[in-house]
Amino acid sequence: MKIKEIIAVLEEMAPLAYAEDFDNVGLLLGNANDDATGILVCHDALENVIDEAIAKNCNFIVCFHPIIFSGLKKITGKNYVERVVLKAIKNDIAIYAVHTALDNHQNGVNKIFCDALGLVNTKILIPKQNFIQKLITYTVPENAEKLRNSLFEAGAGNIGNYEDCSFNSTGIGTYMGNENSNPEIGERFEFVESNEIKIEVTFEKHLQSKILKALFQNHVYEEVAYEIYNLENLHQNIGLGMVGELPTALSERDFLQMIKDKMQSDGIRHSALLDKNIRKVAVLGGSGSFAIKNAIQAGADAFLTADLKYHNFYEADNQLLLADVGHFESERYTKNYIVDFLKKKILNFAIILSEENTNPVKYL
């Protein structure tokens, strides 16, 4: 199969539009039109992973972290990023990264984190802003059902646990066509008053072109009147971090030991113990110090993340237990999830979980 066919499946798992603006996701290296010989899934596409891909006849690497994050002005092999790029190009290996596109997915990195800890009743900690748009259009009653259903099929009208959502109102539309017009109702130069239905649907902004294509293909008017607005509503099913509950409350020490065991961590840094049980837990895989206040506002008893600095621990402010479980550790099961997803979607094809440990942090 072509690499671009695999990319379509990956974007189903983690739409690139979900990624943060600062991130570098998608196909980083290689030609999407090439035939794929095999897929190697890893956490970080380092040199040893490139060697593994070569040994296992995989010319397409799917990694979590993007090996190319900022612009490269020279590729001379002077650092680990440039060496990876050179070796991948030399061996015709393509590299694709998912990173925050999967971080922000409701079934992505943080849901995987929650599932590893056995958390229930989970929801997004920081819902994504400026991601919902609204389409408003007008049509004759005879066209309304067909048009509305086509918009639903294109992805409009999904709100939380509900789909096919719309608001419809009736009114009078007016128009008069010029000499170049071909009106559906009435004649040229005739002033027409027509009963119309106003259809309003919301959609995720990355679907706009697909929504408009459905609108134009299924509308009966020669000139389609429509409006698109950006909404300030938070998207409750897309965003960073997650908060959930333990089935049974644990003491702080038992909770920290459980995390250490479940996430296979060699060491956990944490804030002062507060001598209270832990039930409600917030998580954010990777670097998450920016979300400490969000975890407090969510009423969490504990917040698990990584890459905390000295002064971040003060921000716990005796309101919750703050624990740094390690960057790699907080995301360690992500590559397993990617492999499982791909195997369900792509049958009878080599999809291999990397055996290389790319965690750069070591413990005594």
Question: How would you describe this structure to a colleague?
Answer:
With 364 residues, the chain is an alpha/beta fold. It has 3 domains: 3-100 and 333-353, NIF3 (NGG1p interacting factor 3)-like (Udp-n-acetylmuramoylalanyl-d-glutamate--2,6- Diaminopimelate Ligase, Chain: A, domain 1); 109-128 and 239-330, 3-Layer(aba) Sandwich (Udp-n-acetylmuramoylalanyl-d-glutamate--2,6- Diaminopimelate Ligase, Chain: A, domain 1), CATH 3.40.1390; 132-233, Alpha-Beta Plaits. It has helices spanning 3-13, 47-55, 80-90, 99-103, 109-117, 141-153, 208-218, 252-262, 292-297, 327-330, 334-345, and strands at 26-29, 39-44, 60-65, 94-97, 120-128, 132-139, 167-175, 192-204, 226-231, 235-250, 269-270, 278-287, 302-306, 321-324, 351-353. The strands form 3 sheets. The chain has a 6-stranded mixed sheet with strand order 5-10-12-13-14-11. The protein has a 5-stranded mixed sheet with strand order 1-4-3-2-15, with helices on both faces. A 4-stranded antiparallel sheet has the order 7-8-6-9. Helix 3 links the parallel strand 3 and strand 4. Helix 1 crosses helix 11 and helix 6 runs antiparallel to helix 7. The longest helix is centred in the middle third of the chain and has 13 residues, at 141-153. The radius of gyration is 25 Å and the shape is globular. The mean pLDDT is 96. A divalent metal cation binds at residues 65, 103, 327, 331. Pfam families: DUF34_NIF3.
